[in-house]
Amino acid sequence: MEGHTRPTALQLPERAAKPRSTGITMVVDGGLPTRYFRDVVESGAEFLDFVKFGWGTALVTKDLGEKIAVLQDIGVEFYFGGTLFEKFVLQDRLDEFRDLCQKYSCQFVEVSNGTIELTNAEKAGYIRKLSDEFQVISEVGFKDAERSENLPPSRWIECIHEDLDSGALLVTLESRESGRSGICRPNGELRFGLIEELLSSELNHETLLFEAPSSELQCYFVKRVGPDVNLGNVAATAVLGLETIRLGLRADTLSCFEGGVA
């Protein structure tokens, strides 16, 4: 895959071109008005890989089909939030979940256990069931901050391996839209020890999608992992801002990549 950066005399990190498997940017749509949605995704399409229709908004979005058509026109993939999947599982309606995804020609689905009582082994079973028809993006970590804090790094690594072995394409690491759960503490501080154990393990970081809703988290991961780190839960209006972070065009990363990128 050829790399890509906008033509300029500046020396900037080379970015993977779309469709890419590294340097993924995922945006959450929590219910943006349709015309506003069109404007923001079209303006950032070059740097945007996925839109996730957050939690259960897919069921209450009047113009969902129109939004999806916009994404298809500009070459941006989409999927429904894992919480919606969990709602269907809670009511033992997996077939109806499949029907919904088929109705909207979904290529990707998210499988999670962030809210309901569902073991990771059970979640992995759903990954296997759905991966025969869809590309599965799983999630590790809980919406409840205390539950996530009680999940030791070794267990995070085990769960990630189990999801990947069951057929997940990517494993999302939970932080919520607030950045106050999962890989983050309730006060918003990143769990640095957890991140270091994940990155120093045998896991391929290209299979991990770090939820990073704030510019502080985005800067940290770009500096720690590199410009082509996979980042999610990015605000729809922050796609271009994130790209400047990746390219060293923002104060926080301005001097990070001088002399080349390892």
What would you say this structure looks like, in words?
The protein is of the alpha/beta class. Helix content is 37%, strand content 16%. It is built from ten helices and ten strands. α5 (120-130) links the parallel β6 (108-111) and β7. α1 (34-43) packs parallel to α2 and α9 (215-225) runs parallel beside α10 (239-246). The mean pLDDT is 94.
Question: Main traits of this protein?
Answer:
262 residues, alpha/beta, 10 helices, 10 strands
Shape: globular
Give the structural class.
alpha/beta
| Strands ordered across the widest β-sheet | 5-4-3-10-9-8-7-6
Q: Mean pLDDT across all residues, rounded? A: 94
Return Rg in Å. 18 Å
Order of helices and strands: EEEHEHEHHEHEHHEHEHEH
What fraction, in percent, of the residue positions are helical?
A: 25-40%
Give the strand content.
15-25%
Largest sheet: 8 strands, parallel
The separation of the N and C termini measures 18 Å
